[in-house]
Amino acid sequence: MVAMANQTFAEKPPRLIRWRIWVQAAFAVAWLDPLGLRLHTICSPVFHCYACPLALFACPIGVIANFSALHTIPFLAIGTLVVVGGIFAGFVCGWACPFGFLQDMVGRIPVPKLKLPPWTQHFRYVVLGVMVLAVPYLWGEGHWLFICRLCPAGTLEGAMYNAGKAAAQGTEIPWPSVAKLTVFGLIVAAMFVTWRPWCTVLCPLGAIFGLFNRVSVIFLHVHPEDCTHCGRCAKECKMGLRSDVQLGDPTCIRCMDCTRCSAIHVETILKN
Amino acid sequence: MVLPDDGCRHAKPRFVPHGTRAVVALALVLCGAGAIVYAAAFHVIPVQSEPPKPAAAQPAEGAPEQSAAPSVEAATPGEAAPAQPAAVMESEPALVKEVSIGGVMLAGSGDIQRTYSDQAPSQCPT
Questions:
Q1: ipTM over 0.95
Q2: In chain B, is it the N or the C terminus that has fewer CB atoms within a 10 Å radius of its CB?
Q3: Is residue A268 included in any domain, yes or no?
Q4: Domain assignment of residue A117, yes or no
């Protein structure tokens, strides 16, 4: 009888899920501005530092933090995140974000993984409220807790690239701060021993998109009449979620691994 | 039939009703689109082009030349106060680009001020 319950869970991922890594790679190439357009008047919906010379768009978190420091409301960044979040929500994290792609690639290295306790996800909102909004508003962008001064994406995509370029050219190397390097080192180390540590614990952008998981246009839905409560989805979920009851959880990055179960589908508000 | 007991059987899925989800999602998308249109087409922010410079004081007849940094107190009565640079009204997309290169800051007076006068920085300093 247990075997009957397991028959609803496909051993081989559906075709769409197998394409996820290629979709992520394609987005990563796009964000790296292959055509050299440098459209920094537009906010992207993903975590990609605009200090990177290869950045196509402006980082929405950097824009929000800097506008908070300027005591101005960033309607462009907020509008972009609301539109994208309202349509896709966590799909952006699972399919489009280059920093999430990096974590997925590192996570594939066969090292035993730890599952972080669920309460750690709430720290993302502390990062959002303190480092992105409050610190810039109260103390400006020069404060050491200003998000951009500690951001690991900025270290990798901006600071390291520029340091390497200066070293190659023989000019003075602009080293990132010790705090920035420390945060980056800790995040990279954590990538080996747990899935998506930045996304789970610290990402302020994921914290925003996670809020849309329950109300987005495109969403994951479980059909209770088809669910046999075998618990396999909970074991397969890399974010530690019970897919049959937590599909709208703010931590869900919508990698769609749980759709290997025939009871879970991607649906839209257009379907009655 | 005995199913593995992992708590899933007893927890009920919490779904947003389909109609509510549709209304909320469309409302969010419309509000977001409206914010983008407002930011791109209407929202302008005053930016001081550069820090205000004190006006150079005119030396009185027969008096020795003043030093290179005249103080406000040394200005003769009736002379104009240090000229404030005109504020440039920048659109929000332009200001987004400026913050991406560290080109603006909040001055002590509360005004947004450009951090460079000649060539713009090539990238964010953080």
A1: no
A2: N
A3: no
A4: yes
